[in-house]
């Protein structure tokens, strides 16, 4: 960025390591090694596409569809029927673009109908077909 300031910050929950690279050093590396520049451009393009899809997903689907798609995506990534939610419920609501109260109401409704069970941060799906049908319209075909 022209002002050399990154508009985000982060806070780690555990100890970790970070690498701070100067913009001039990155530009020199890109000029000296086009293969690295190509990989960076591919990565940036991929992240841009991911963010555009996320915005479209937030604006073109319902809260229930987004929650179903999120839970099913976690199931496929974790390869288990006992899905561990990696976010707090407040963080999950923010990620899905809904209010905490809406998330709680959806989860309670699905529990009462027997579609899922949830205890602390673990979700067990009882009716995957219901969630799949809900999430179909929230998925992009490409």
Automatic annotation (TrEMBL):
SUPFAM superfamilies: cAMP-binding domain-like, Winged helix' DNA-binding domain. This is Crp/Fnr family transcriptional regulator. Keywords: DNA-binding, Transcription, Transcription regulation. It comes from the Bacteria. The keyword Transcription regulation applies. Residues 61-129 form the HTH crp-type domain. Signal peptide: none annotated. It comes from Providencia huaxiensis.
